[in-house]
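Chain A, query sequence.
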Amino acid sequence: MLVLIAATAVSYLLGSLSGSLLVGGLRGIDIRRQGSGNAGGTNALRTQGWRFALAVVVIDVGKGAVAAWLGLHAGAAAPAPFDSAHAQGALCGFAAVAGHCWPLFFGFRGGKGAATAIGAVLVLAPVFVLPMIGVWALVLIATGYVGLATIVAAVAFALLAVTASGAAPNALAPFAIAVALLVVFTHRSNIARLARGEEYRFDKARLLHRLRRGG
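Chain A, predicted structure.
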């Protein structure tokens, strides 16, 4: 059990290595003081450009993958429900997501967790990654709202994990539900802005709208 506790703690610390704040530190900027104030990939793209955002996403996805891999290979003897490698991988993956949202090294002000969750899913159940990205892309193309696309993709992941037969390890459903709830919680300000009609819309991504106007 001590091995699993240590692996979970290390995973949280990995998650606390916020990509946007690390890359921003090299430029002498704090991205939380710009744009939406969120230390995530969307705000990085909006305020710093695609190269900066790409570096951020690579770090944030990577740390989720490393944390899940660490849990899978911890080999810890633990009681149920953490008595399987996949359950331990899911726990460590979620710890990294929590670290991203509330990073120890950056005053507990981080991002919203989606990219780090994708990294964990890449290791735990890669079969779900393309459907998640597909749902995200479809909602973004249809609406232009990145936050809404992320929320819908996270909920779709939870539904897929719960209803999948044979494609997902037993530990994936609780992990997916926890991730979906966390993503909804971290996007609560986006939900409030959507309700008020004030949410930022990424108009360049609204391909369906542009096609209709072009027609």
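The radius of gyration is 17 Å. Residues 2-214 form one domain.
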